[in-house]
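Figure-free illustration: sequence to structure, shown twice.
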Amino acid sequence: MNMAPDGQPEPAKDTAPAIEFKAVLVVDDDRQLASALQWILADENYFVDIAYDGEDALSKIKDNDYDVVVCDVMMPKLRGDELFIKARDLRPQLADRFIFITGYAAGTEINLFLSKTGAKYLIKPFPMQKLIDCVRQLLG
């Protein structure tokens, strides 16, 4: 046991490396899918927060720093494309940290938005490993 100069035992030093968790916000009005994505990403050692609509997500983005946002395109209250624009204005570093998930990628308006932003996107249903790979790429 090591002793401090005052004769008291020195506290044990933590020699384990600090684990840095990256924060991911999952935004989807499909609660079952959002919950599944939360568990899958948490299993990959990400801290995962959930929002069930765009307005709730925007509020969370105002209050928290996220490293990645996984976002459905078609949602009530505030669509994913609208959320992206507002989030980018609030936190410019998120501009290249969105991954969109959609069942509507064939729609002209959505395709135009996705190509303009250059954002990553996955078409539902997608393999979970593909989402994990996209998150890892963004966090590079």
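We now fold a second protein in the same way, so the two outputs can be compared directly.
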Amino acid sequence: MAHRVTLITGDGIGREVVPAAQKVVEATGVAVQWEEMPAGEMAAEKLGEAVPEETIASIIRNKVALKGPLTNLVARGWASPNVTLRSKLGLFAQVRRVRHFDGVPSPYRGVDLIVVREAVEDTYAGVEQKVGPDAAVAIKFATRAASEQVARFTMEYARRLGRRKVTVAHKANILKLTDGLFLESARKVAAEFPDLEFNDRMIDNMCFQLVRAPLDYDLILTTNVYGDILADLTAGLVGSLGLGFGGNFGHAVALFEPVHGTAPNKAGRGISNPIGEILTASMMLAHLGETAAAMAIERAVERVLKEGKVLTADLGGRATTAEMTGAIIAALNQP
């Protein structure tokens, strides 16, 4: 029986890399019935809504969605489509994974990191106000319920994937109430998982440690803003933002998306790296219970990058999106 998955192509290079990921999924032989729905810039312009209710209903009905990057439309009068999706779907945990592949230029070999980001609270909730004509305030907030919820998800996720250690990144020495509550909640939940090594780092020291010795870390739990920053930093460690992949998780639904943005300067040129979206689709397949297909995709990507014959510009080559996609599909069929 085919898996029903909501598909959001997104904006910019999403219109190129999402179809590439679909082709790779289809090449695994896993049956997926895609239900394509609008969201983002095109939806806002054509329908007057960046995230139509029909799209939300589709994801709730199917419980799983694959999406490309969406344009931030806040400056144009719409709420952020990504924030809207997370809010309306109750997606409280955002997972970002990066790993180094042989053949990709990077001083760091063997890196395989996961960042879990609390996705509901913090200043990214967008609660701001003007204070007179020349000042503004953004409100950072944290609740025990949300902090413990994402901490428990993280510990269970680490255990399920066989990860050995969880590190909490925070700034509780200065933000004693908000980050302090987050750290306190994480410590409380971690006590229920004695099989996992648990520690914490100040966010500034966390960034330093990741650049100095990334192999010392395994899975990082952090707040909304810090998680957004660390996702890009860790992608830099492995050589390209185009290699980062991940998903957003709630109690009932999961929405999978790459780390990279819409890259409008590359859109429509057929030169974008599709690997982030392809590995995102692999994570989606693992979530659907199609573990063998998910592992096959990751091995195919590994083989193509190690051979180094077909590389997009961000990886030092000249291959097109279509050529990279074709090479990964061909690698899937190799013994």
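Summary for the second example: The longest strand covers residues 93-99.
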